Amino acid sequence: MHHTSLLTRAARGLAVLTVLAFAVSGCGAGAGAGAGTPTSTSASHTATGEQVPESAQPAERGPAPEGSDPEDAETRASSASLSGLTIAVDPGHNGDNGANPATIRESVPDGRGGTKDCNTVGTESTDGYPEHRFAWEAAEVLVDALEEADASVVLSRADDNGVGPCVDERGTFADDADALVSLHANGTEDHSARGFHVIAAPAGGRADEQVADVSEALGTALAASLEDAGLTRSPAYDDLVVRDDLATLNNASVPAIMVEAGEMRNAEDARMLQSEKGQQRIARAIVDALAVTLVR
Predict the structure, then answer these.
(1) CB 79: neighbour CB atoms within 10 A?
(2) pLDDT tens, residue by residue, 28-77
(3) What is the C-alpha to C-alpha distance for residues 29 and 140, in angstroms, rounded to an integer?
(4) Residue 242 to residue 201: CA distance in whole angstroms
(5) What mean pLDDT is predicted for residues 166-192?
(6) Which one, of 2, 57, 56, 77, lies nearest residue 284 by Cα?
(7) Mean pLDDT, the chain, as a whole number?
(8) Using CA atoms in the order 228, 234, 238, 242, what is the torsion angle rounded to 10 degrees?
(9) What structural domains and CATH numbers belong to the chain?
């Protein structure tokens, strides 16, 4: 992959286009989540960002989930073109966050006049597959899919062996991009809970009303695209979730969404998130949603 890290950004492509009239945090750890107020959901599950034990060992990537697929997302070629656009990809958390508690507990701007912890460890599956590894693996697949669609890509972190970056920088690094996608997975205590949800922030952080509208349109399009790809939408959320407490989204000046791609503690979701096929589905859905929202 020929993508650009945080320290070597590609030049910004086309300006963000106005979206058509229609048109990712439960783990919250990598986005500085707190006791937010989702405005479009009546979630009954507890959305957590508990720190995983530092001794937890990542599991190997597992098999694809069983069952028939609506489409084979590993082989399906998308007709979407993102030529001229730069997409910022933020894989949540990082592999060495757990070994550096003092660093990730430092206070940083939350984008709305307050502060948040720099970062957190994230959640993990019951068999030890950590969210930070899912986010990194899914980001690698997404970068390939974006480049196949002729987009330029910038990443908030260069590998899965470091610390941070802090949640404010995970938003501001996208300033020269056309959109930001932050990749996470949820950590609900109830192991029977499953499904994805997508999050956008309202205006009032670094984004104005027009940018916030495009963020919401992008999030709505992504939720539909993920369902089309065969992923299960979380029944705890009606539609797009709008929250003003996520520092990554609040610090973004461009259209930005966070996807909680599934429930890490649900066995079926965890298998999907850990599989190459599941990661391919997520990546293709993101590319399709970006094309629907940003390209006329």
Answers:
(1) 7
(2) 333 333 334 344 332 323 233 333 332 233 333 344 444 334 444 444 44
(3) 20
(4) 5
(5) 97
(6) 77
(7) 81
(8) -100
(9) 29-34+78-294 (3.40.630.40)
**CA nearest 166: which of 212, 116, 98?**
116
Q: What share of the chain is helix, strand, coil (3-state, %, to 5)?
A: 30, 15, 55
Task: Report d(CA 157, CA 173) in Å as an integer.
Answer: 10
Q: Which of 189, 260, 268, 276 is the catalytic position? A: 260
- Tens digit of each residue's pLDDT (9 = 90 or more) over 80-109: 899 999 999 999 999 999 999 999 999 999
For 262, residues 6+ apart whose C-beta sits below 8 A from its C-beta are 185, 186, 194, 195, 196, 231, 232, 269, 270, 272, 273, 278
Running DSSP on this structure, what letter comes out for residue 204? Answer: T
- Listed in sequence order, the DSSP H helices in the chain are 101-104, 131-148, 167-172, 209-228, 247-250, 267-274, 276-294
Q: What percent of the chain lies above the pLDDT cut of 70? A: 73
pLDDT (0 to 100) of residue 78: 58
- What pLDDT does residue 112 have? 98
pLDDT for the residue 114: 98
Task: For residue 215, give the amino acid letter.
Answer: S
Is-catalytic flag, 131?
no
